[in-house]
Amino acid sequence: MKSSETYPHSLSVEDVLRQFSTHPSEGLSEQEANARLKNYGHNRIVEKEHKSLWHIFFQQFKSPIVLLLFVAAGLSFWFAEWMDAIAILVVLLINAIIGFYMEHQAERSMEALKKLSSSYCKVIRDSQLLEVNAELIVPGDIVFVEAGDMIPADGRILSVTKLLSDESPLTGESVPVEKSSKRIDRETTLAERTNMLYKGTFVSHGNAYFIITATGMQTELGHVANMVQTAQDAVTPLEVKLQSFSKKLINITIGIVGIILIAGLLYGQKLTAMLNTSIALAVAAVPEGLPIVATLALAQGMLRMARRNVIVKRLSAVETLGGTNVICTDKTGTLTKNKIEVTNLAVTSEAAKAIINEVAVLCNTAEIYLRGKESRELGDPLEIGLLRWVQQNEININALREFYPKLGEEPFSSETKIMCTLHRKEEQFVVYAKGAAEELIQRCTRILLEKGEEDFDPGLREKWLKEAEQMAATGLRVIAAACRFTNEEPDQLSSELVFCGLIGMMDPPREDVFGAIEECKSAGIKIIMITGDHPATAKTIAAQLNVADPDKSEVINGKTMRHYEDASDDEKTSWYNAFVFARVSPKQKLDIINVLQDRHNVVAMTGDGINDAPALKKADIGIAMGLRGTQVAQEVSDMIIKDDSFSSIVVAIKQGRVIFVNIRKFVTFLLSCNLSEILVIATGSIFNLPFQLFPLQILFINLITDVLPALSLGVTNASGDIMKQPPRNMHEPIIDKKRWFSIIIYSVIIALTSVGSVVASHYAARQDQTWDPKLSNNILFFTLIFGQLFHVFNMNEDPERFFSSEVLRNRYVWGAVLLSFAIVFVMYLITPTRDVLSLYEMHGIDWLISLGCGLLSFFLINIIRRIKLVH
Ligand code: ADP
Ligand code: MG
After folding, report:
1. How far apart are alpha carbons 298 and 312 in whole angstroms?
2. CA 840 to CA 829: how far, in whole Å?
3. Of the four listed, 39, 198, 202, 515, which is most buried by Cβ atoms within 10 Å?
4. Nearest CA-CA partner of 816 in 746, 668, 742, 714
5. In sequence order, what are the residues at sequence separation of 6 or more whose Cβ sits closer than 8 angstroms to the Cβ of residue 828?
6. Which atom belonging to ligand 1 lies closest to the Cα atom of 332?
7. What's the angle, vertex CA 772, arms to CA 771 and CA 776, rounded to 5?
8. Residue 1 pLDDT level (bands cut at 50, 70, 90)
9. 419 CB less than 6 Å from ligand 1?
10. 332 C-alpha vs ligand 2 centroid, how far in Å?
11. Are 691 and 773 in contact (CB under 8 A)?
């Protein structure tokens, strides 16, 4: 029964069924499926081996700075400074453990996110069609797929209606392949096995039932994946930018080390002392926590979004989200509820009314099941709306469908905007058709009046088009219905139809959308509504939702839009200025994105169908719908909105902004801390001051006073006005010139107050004129720590609102600062750690001076921010 040994394409359907002991309409039993799952394993492509815990741990030692510290430890051993040597090693270990923990944590969050975007498929088990997680599919399962679905596993086709499959992911061949259930020669190559469906490819048209013959790594995709499993988690642009900060600091340091070496030689310092200083500088220069704090902040943000119905599939999408300034959104189902109800009917005659009922039931692929007392619905909401309507008219859906069996179908597509089905009605054939009014009326040659079928003359057409327009202008979604009776089977379904009337359907706006739209407006984000509906419907709904002022802006009709390539500049400008597009085809969505992107907009675009895939890919943020979106759309999108609601998009954009602002906060914080350390050490060396910081002290500061508050800044909530500001310019770096300037000023202030505290304590408290190097060192150390810890509270966005700032309200910040203080004092109180950090007993006055100077630095920075000297 192993698929690799058999060739299901060369067997008849019956043989395959027998081989996999399954039944075409009953499927497997749940019990059997579970047993097979144990046997065959989950249907998943085993990704590149997970990083083992040891691997992650040892990676922490790979950075050049850590190697440098190892050298330092070695030198300390050489000079028999045992305490230093051991301490450096211990610190390295602690550093590795923290790094390890955070990376592990980040990896776990990513994993959790991946799970959220798992896909489902329709499978027959115990004679029922169920939705099952695609990972639980086993060989022998009977699976149903239709247009837009990804194929969950390899299988042999049982029965098929006009199925085209896009196998480009597997074969590279981009022309869809037509499939059948006929058996074929055993030697046929993969690309030509027209009776097989393969995992990872997708259905672009039609539908099929097929028997699963191989799952997981046994599939053809699995074989390929085995060969090409290379590192796929590429670094995000953000990571690249962050790495560049470290490089900048290291460059500054190398320069300073040079100066210090020269100064040291001039002052005749010992080589070991200079070495120590250089090591201290090297340590000070590297914001060790930065990349991992950033990853963690992103991953946390993504999890937070996931709790609010937004699944972000790429880390880097978060960054783009924050800069989004145009949202192109579908109307139906995203702005509206997609709970469609028939409210109006305009028929051509009594006889036509009966036909419309039949159209509603028969030209319809939706189902309403009764399960006990509950009714379950499956299918297009518009079609469900039609079924509910005929149910009210006491028509028996199932009976009608049985009486007039379906022989053929032209499915609805957003290109043609028409759907037709062919049925047997007693001795005759009958076509039932429904679709967008203009489109369907164009294909009708006759009309069913009281006297019977008549010519559909231009005057009448005009009248009915007007009628449709009037219905649409009240905000209704309008479809036209038609039929055609013939004695022979017609070749083409959607022609020579007989017009029967119009159905008006209401699809009310979602309540939460109004607020979201207001929020977008204040946030400088333009909303463009795109719909396949009638321009009049679009206009009315847009006005209701306050997307566009009906008097000021015109609705662009997709029918009149030329191709992007042919359109004049004026035409493109009019698209660029429009808020509403109606009767749009998926291809035109791509044109709209092009025009927007030409003018440097960052565009988010929603989509649900297979045809939307190119637009979803092209948009800066492609947003697929979780409920009504096809798997293909979800596959190519950057983000999935689980509840389909527009307001979730706005939630995501807001979160994107928050995450970005938080990243900027802790980058600013970390850089100013590291730079202040560099400055303190450099000042000491260059001016040959009688006190200096030790490498271990710097390490301690970097690991405690830097990382903890930085982490807490990463989870700051939005400041009140985050959605009142215009979108960020995506071309601007995270830290622009203005902010670099601020960072330099911050660090100068922190460094000056630290050095100043030593001077202050020396002159204020001591009468004798000799410096006490130990005490000086300690005061320097503590003041630097205090200054940096207080500095966190200056990381709020709006300097004028300090007391109600988002940072002050972040309890993690308070927690991190208090914890850091506590750790500092514990280190001071316990003898061994005190020795390692070269700490000595300090008097009350020394503590006061340290704290005072730390606070002074805080106030100075606070003031220069308030007076807008720096940002
Ligand atoms: P959107 O989803 O953007 O509102 P659609 O492409 O779904 O647009 O629909 C466009 C038009 O096609 C609708 O205004 C309606 O007249 C018609 N239509 C929509 N769904 C169906 C369907 N299932 N069968 C027939 N016609 C439909
Ligand atoms: Mg639709």
Report:
1. 10
2. 10
3. 202
4. 714
5. 834, 839
6. 4
7. 100
8. very low
9. yes
10. 6
11. yes
Measure 411 CA to ligand 1 centroid, in angstroms: 12
Ligand 1 near 464 CB (within 6 A): no
- Ligand 1: nearest atom to the Cα of 583: 10
Whether 807 contacts 740, CB under 8 Å: no
What is the distance in A from the centroid of ligand 2 to the CA of 533?
8
Q: Residues 91, 694: contact at Cβ < 8 Å?
A: no
Cβ of 589 less than 6 Å from ligand 1: no
pTM of the predicted model over 0.85: no
Burial degree of 858 (CB within 10 A; 0-12, 13-18, 19+)? buried
The type of residue at 110 is M
How far is the centre of ligand 1, averaged over its atoms, from the C-alpha of 586 (Å)?
Answer: 13
Report d(CA 15, CA 76) in Å as an integer: 76
Give the distance (Å) from ligand 2 centre to CA of residue 382: 8
Pairwise CA distance, residues 418 & 412, whole Å? 5
* Ligand having the closest approach to the CA of 533: 1
pLDDT in tens, 567-625: 999 999 999 999 999 999 988 999 999 999 999 999 999 998 888 888 998 999 999 99
Distance, in Å, from the CA atom of 736 to the CA atom of 192, rounded to the nearest integer, reads: 56
Residues 6+ apart with CB under 8 A from 243: 291
Can you count the helices (H) and strands (E) in the chain?
30, 25
The reply to whether ligand 1 has any atom less than 6 angstroms from the CB of 510 is: no
Structure tokens at 589: 């969505």
Q: Is 330 in the pocket of ligand 1 (CB under 6 A)?
A: yes
Write b or e for each residue in 720-748: b if 16 or more Cβ atoms lie within 10 A of its Cβ, otherwise e.
eebbeeebbeeeeebbeeebbebbbbbbe
3-class secondary-structure state, position 136: helix
Whether 330 is catalytic: yes
The residue whose CA is least distant from atom 16 of ligand 1 is: 436
Which of 380, 382, 419 best tests ligand 1's pocket when mutated (most atoms within 8 Å of CB)?
A: 382
Asked whether 331 lines ligand 1 (CB < 6 A), one says yes
- How confident is the model at residue 83, as a pLDDT? 72
Token pair in block for residue 317: 């999408």
d(CA 663, CA 747): 19
Ligand 1, atom 2: closest residue by C-alpha: 332
Q: What are the tens digits of pLDDT across the range 331-387?
A: 999 999 999 999 999 999 999 999 999 999 999 988 887 767 777 787 889 999 999
In tens, the pLDDT along 173-183 reads 778 889 999 98
* Residue range 523-556, pLDDT digits in tens: 999 999 999 999 999 999 999 999 987 777 789 9
Instruction: Residue count of the chain, please give it.
Output: 871
Cα–Cα distance, 214 to 16 (Å, whole number): 12
Nearest of 213, 240, 216, 233 to residue 43 by alpha carbon: 216
For ligand 1, is residue 332 a contact (CB within 6 Å)? Answer: yes
Are the CB atoms for 639 and 652 separated by under 8 Å?
yes
Task: Report the DSSP pairing between strands 428-435 and 418-425.
Answer: antiparallel
User: In a 3-state reduction of DSSP, which class is residue 486?
Assistant: strand
The verdict on the CB of residue 709 being under 6 Å from ligand 1 is: no
Give the pLDDT confidence of 770-794 residue by residue, as tens digits.
Answer: 778 888 999 999 999 999 999 999 9
d(CA 306, CA 379): 26
Tokens encoding 200: 């990872």
Cα 650 to ligand 1 centre (Å)? 25
Q: For residues 475 and 506, what is the distance between their CA atoms, to the nearest angstrom?
A: 7
Of the candidates 330, 533, 612, 638, the residue annotated as catalytic is: 330
Q: Where would I find the H helices in 423-579?
A: 437-442, 458-473, 511-522, 535-545, 569-577
DSSP label at 11? S
Residues β-bridged to residue 458: none
- Enumerate residues 6+ apart whose C-beta is below 8 A from 462: none
Look-up: residue for tokens 């619905």?
A: 377
